[in-house]
Amino acid sequence: MNANTAIIEVMLPILLGFVMQRAKVFGAREEEVLRDFVVKFSVPLMIFYSMYTSNLSQLPQMMTMVVALFLMTVLMAVLALIGTRWLPLSVAKKRAVVLAIAFGNYGWIGWAVVESFLGTAGLTQAIFFTLFWWPIFYLVGAFVGTDGNLKSLDRGMLRKISLGTLPTLVAVLVGLGVNLAPWSLPGPVEKTVADFSGMTVPLILFSVGLQMRLDRLGALYKLGIGISLARSLLGAIVGWIVAVVLNLNELSAAVVRIEGVMPVATVVPVLASYFDFDQDTVTTSIVISTILAIVMLPLWAKVLL
Length: 305
Hints:
Largest sheet: none
Helix content: over 70%
Radius of gyration: 19 Å
């Protein structure tokens, strides 16, 4: 697909969501409902359908992509921890910087970008890449949030990790189970599942537009710009390294590289329920990095794909 066409396909749903939000057609309540629908229903269904329609010979590649996400997240977190040691910031702000750099928007925006540039086959690899996002997210987030003291985790956090992982595991196992079965889904059922799966990426991008509130930038925009650029540049380098170390095939390597430059994950504030970090810094970096990523995608596409 032409790079400019792919960028337009990514930007239009985001722009539409932003316009609807600015026109007050949709607000925070609708944003929350849409996010819950996508997270709790649409995404698991898309994962199920991806597993159901996957070529089972790809299973080893699937596990390699899971390892790729883990390596990328750990490397990004380590580099951010090293880099923040010399910054004249409070502990809460340093944690916010590390969390923002460590976690990219590999699902929300990443899936859409990969599908636009690399098609359905690329999207399948991107789904493999993010299969175990939640356990990795909570584990690395807990390490950063506790300054490495994982023994301080309480049962509530462990329960949260389990509940966050369960929908993905169920979707993967059921999808693979049906794939292995000697029968196929009935036509109407498969079409319904495929239709819901197909609407997931546009809904994700639309919800990103709803979340882009420029009034959240505040006085931290300079730090937000720094975080956004650091996340993008480090992600490009780490993506190349991970793809080479794991000896990924051409398509999987391209997916990992382009995922590496995605903006700050919009779910990072979830960790505020358990750990002390500056939420304003994270929120600012989410907005700025999303805007910069959209602007820089044509450049990254030429360099990384």
